[in-house]
């Protein structure tokens, strides 16, 4: 009986490891590369900026800056990165920071989306995401025009 239990646990462990390695790896087969960076205005980080990297063909990747102005692009909720190749980039910059909106911290996600207004800024030239090179792309808003 003990030998049967050990054999069962061994097989279960092997199956769990195999399933995790299949589901937890970057084995999605997509030509993606990591893209991250910081968005600033006058050298100060900007929170809440939405970034969209739209490739010539294929699905766009999106990111949002945190309180330190840092972002990392996501292809889907579970897959990070952007497709390899040329991208048009658009930044949606909040007209006010969350701290400037009364009661923002107490609002639910849907209410927050309703009160924030954005200025859309198109990056003036395409950005190339290169295979094998994780990209760190920083944007200074004072250098860009609406």
UniProtKB/TrEMBL annotation:
<protein>
    <recommendedName>
        <fullName>Carboxypeptidase regulatory-like domain-containing protein</fullName>
    </recommendedName>
</protein>
């Amino acid at each position: 009986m003990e030998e049967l239990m050990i054999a069962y646990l061994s097989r279960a462990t092997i199956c769990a490891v195999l399933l995790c390695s299949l589901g937890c790896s970057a084995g999605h087969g997509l030509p993606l590369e990591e893209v991250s960076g910081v968005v600033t205005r006058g050298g100060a980080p900007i929170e809440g900026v939405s970034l969209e990297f739209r490739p010539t063909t294929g699905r766009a990747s999106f990111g949002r800056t945190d309180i330190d102005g840092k972002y990392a692009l996501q292809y889907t909720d579970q897959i990070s990165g952007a497709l390899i190749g040329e991208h048009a980039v658009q930044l949606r910059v909040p007209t006010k920071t969350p701290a400037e909106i009364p009661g923002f911290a107490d609002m639910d996600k849907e209410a927050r989306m309703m009160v924030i207004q954005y200025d859309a800024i198109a990056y003036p030239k395409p950005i190339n995401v290169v295979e094998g090179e994780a990209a760190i792309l920083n944007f200074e808003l004072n250098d860009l025009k609406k």
